[in-house]
Amino acid sequence: MRHAHRNRRMRTVALTLATACLCAGLAHAAQGPELIPFWDASDESSTATVDHSVWQEVLTGHVIVHPSGVNRFDYAGLKASPDGMTKLNGYLADLQAMDPRAHPRAEQKAYWINFYNALTVKVVADAHPVDSIREIHEGWIPFTGPWGDVHARVAGQELTLDNIEHGILRPIWRDPRIHYAVNCASIGCPNLATDAYTAGNMESLLEAGARDYVNHPRGVDFVDDDYLVLSSIYDWWVFDFGDSEEGVFAHLVLYAEPELATRLRDFDGAIDYEYDWDLNQP
Fold first, then answer.
1. pTM
2. Which of 35, 156, 15 is nearest to 99 (CA)?
3. Among 111, 180, 181, 260, which is most exposed with the fewest C-beta within 10 angstroms?
4. Which residues contact 77 (CB under 8 A, 6 or more apart)?
5. What sign does the dihedral 90-95-96-98 (CA atoms) show?
6. Domain residues for 85?
7. How far apart are CA 260 and CA 111, in angstroms?
8. Virtual CA dihedral for 151, 120, 165, 131, nearest 10 degrees?
9. Within a domain: residue 80?
């Protein structure tokens, strides 16, 4: 039986506003999926598609494939580019002008993933320069991040980033690979893909995202044979990975390269969970 020693390496300190704010900043990362019923509808007979070509132009112009294996996004360059911001704002306006429920599920999935990522990029670019997305928040409590703030309106419904991820994507599709697709603008997060998601490339992009993250040290990192560091994603969202440590390991083995898979199958040591919230900028 593996022992999950989830040592956060936090100093013992008195309860202060600072620590309370830190906890609030991570609060978004503890939610189970809770369906927003309004969005649980589709038209599977529809042949209409959503055009994501403008988002592709933004990605092509500003995503940097970094030798570290962690894709970067040039928020400063985007913000300084009137054409780039015009494209991004226009794309988001177009998404908000349509009702995704009139599309089949496959189109909806791509719609919501791209919407989430484009909206996150806009939130960060508008607030840039910042060192972490957690610095961005409309309320008075610092370090709570932008996830609970209203940033969009679709079909008359106000939407937050949390609504899209936890109220739509996770509960409707029940696909743990969604965590490799939605990007939170941080070094510790799975990469922002260089390609816009579509119904046609969805499966290949999700599979590639899972393999890339699991086989990168920010996803799975053996410190030694008895000490393993996993991304906090597998702690925060354990519900989506079988709701157990065994489920997490089964998922990791599924996407791990052969040598890593063998080490994971044989592992019986201590586990820590870590996450780097530094902005994924150049």
1. 0.90
2. 156
3. 260
4. 62, 84
5. positive
6. 35-215
7. 34
8. -110
9. yes
